[in-house]
Specification:
Elements: E1 25-27, E2 30-34, H1 40-53, H2 65-74, E3 81-86, E4 89-98, E5 108-115, H3 124-138, E6 143-149, H4 153-161, E7 165-176, E8 179-189
Parallel strand pairs: 5-6
Antiparallel strand pairs: 1-2, 2-3, 3-4, 4-5, 6-8, 7-8
Length: 192
């Protein structure tokens, strides 16, 4: 998608208007809710598969149980972690993290969305990202960034469908599995 191109909006879309977070979102027996420390192990299992076998994360060392619990604890208040749950099992998770540490960046966040491989193509990522952007707006954030490994068309398409635009292309900024990796930077400005 060329920079500056804005995807068509769904009928009924109004810029700057979002549904309030907090109520469960359900599609085909999948519910999105805030994560708890009890979700730590399920999140860790989903994430570590990607660490071991893909370039969707630039982490190269798997998270321990203690690492994962600390990661969830660090994301409280406006920097949330949500999970998608189906039949009592966590099938995906998403989070908002600070974009940069300096104070002037405090109104910007970076999103992450991960879906268990057995649940790809079921709309889980769409539910998670939709809920996450609503929560970001409700917490007063202005810009949401996604940093996506080059060539990951599913994630680029997911973000574009939610109104994110490509605003940057960082060339060969990561190295994993013996190859250089690009990062596509996408941004969504939330209306306030």
């Amino acid at each position: 998608m060329p920079t500056g191109h804005r995807p068509a909006r769904k009928a009924g879309y109004t810029a700057g208007r979002v549904k309030p977070p907090g109520r469960p979102r359900t599609i085909a027996a999948v519910q999105v809710r805030l994560a708890t420390i009890d979700d730590s192990e399920a999140i860790r299992r989903i994430y570590n598969v990607e660490v071991r076998s893909s370039t969707v994360t630039f982490d190269i060392v798997e998270r321990t149980a203690a690492d994962q619990a600390a990661w969830i604890s660090d994301r409280s208040g406006a920097h949330v972690v949500t999970v998608a749950e189906s039949a009592g099992a966590v099938v995906g998770f998403a989070s908002l993290s600070p974009y940069r540490p300096r104070a002037a960046y405090s109104t910007s966040v970076e999103d992450s969305v991960y879906v268990h491989r057995d649940h790809h193509g079921r709309g889980v990522g769409r539910m998670l990202l939709g809920d996450l952007t609503e929560r970001a707006a409700a917490h007063g954030f202005h810009a949401v960034f996604a940093r996506i490994v080059g060539g990951h068309e599913a994630s680029i398409g997911l973000h574009a469908a939610h109104g994110f635009e490509i605003v940057g292309h960082e060339r060969e900024v990561g190295r994993k599995f013996g190859r250089w990796l690009d990062v596509m930077v996408m941004e969504l400005l939330l209306g306030h």
